[in-house]
Design goal:
The protein has 255 residues and is of the alpha/beta class. Helix content is 45%, strand content 15%. The protein is built from eight helices and seven strands; from the N terminus they run E-H-E-H-E-H-E-H-E-H-E-H-H-H-E. It has a seven-stranded parallel sheet, sandwiched between helices.
Amino acid sequence: MNLKDKVAIVTGGNSGIGQAIVLELARQGASVVIDYVANPAATAALEQQLAALGERAVGVQADVSQVADLQRLIAAAVQAFGRIDIMVNNAGIETRSSVLETTESQYDKVLAINLKSAFFGTQLAAQQMIKQGGGGRIINISSVHEDWPMPGNAPYCLSKGGMRMLTRTAGVELAAHGICVVGVGPGAVATPINQSTMADPALLAKLDAAIPLGRLARPEEIASVVAFLAGDGASYMTATTVFADGGIMQSSPGL
């Protein structure tokens, strides 16, 4: 893989899977815009880490649930690096609330951060890619739960199911412009979103036992899939999801 001279945006890029994606894309030669909404110190540290490696990166504080902030994020990327080649819609949250218990505010927040941001991030990035020419890649970080029910986490599953159809529909619509849209569906990953499970030995052992590979994924393992999809080797892939789940979808009735 070689992403030299490519420019990437990673939403939610200063922690978890997003941070790993930023680091991997930069290692492959891309200039990276790190979107974040909180913890500017972590973003500054990531920028410094990449600068020490000779890579170009800039942090932009933007709430991707707001279209105006997404517009500002796209504009900042173009101002900093002149173009956008790769858009990674990674930002996401969950509430761990059921159909019967979810409040309106919980529902709105999850759908806005997970799905609305991916929709308008896709739209705005595609508009810029078409304007500049040369096609591009849009990569949506989804989940096994775009297909696989997770009782007790209804808004999250709804948002990821929406991302599934966004990926497929946008992939078909944008193909004529040379823009490929692909989802990445991680299973359980060792990130802050799973901190409560990782902190409970019994819960962690139960989860590990349900995964054929016997462990949670490392964020770097998801990032390597994203980097592949951003490169020339994935030039004929669009309107689909690549699952990186350790086999769990094929072996367990649900979590």
